[in-house]
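Sharing a chain and its predicted structure for anyone who wants a worked example. Both blocks are below, sequence first, tokens second.
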Amino acid sequence: LYALVSHWNGSQWQTWKMQDYNFLTSIWGTSSNNIYACGGKGIILHYDGISWSKIESGTNIRLADVWGNSKTNEMYFVGGNLSNGEGVLVYFDEKMKRITTQTSPQYNDTSIYGRLLGIHGVNDTTIYIVGPHAFVGQQLTWKELLLENDNTIMEKVRGVKNNLFVTGSFSLVMHYNGKTWRRYEQFYRKPDGDLLVNIWESKKRGFIVGRTGSAQGVIYRGAQN
């Protein structure tokens, strides 16, 4: 296995193929010379505009998603172990170059538990994490959100404070308007729905990507009138 990153500059693709690293699952950055990527075996890579370098994460658990706060120089990476349900949160203070790794068991009374698949912040103090369960908080202080997801695994969370989306298994799509959560029943099909693994949204448009049960790619497109 190897890590592969490609960049489109408007006219052509530039590709980095890194044999020494595992596969990558998510990427985030503030500029063309400050980009982070994460993936298998706890890999975290940083691009400074010239080359990629490895950051020791303190875990071998697969990291599934990354989000950073450009104002506070904080980076968050989440992941989990499919075989035992264990999760991990890696908190990186970019300014202090300090990593804190918190491994969460499958079930207990701690603030975060279980496999973690998606993370996204809407401001400096409100960050969401999803997986089999959902949490909200910041740094290493979190509380569980009790969403009506019918025990469905949530894959990704994206959006802004009053326009937040969660996607997951069985064509799960949930929306938060700043006050209440709503599940789109017209999409949700358990146990036969699609696996929706990622989402992008702007003020009036949104795209969700995933795959069907027969491993075909699927795209959901939405627009606000």
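Comments welcome. The longest strand covers residues 24-31.
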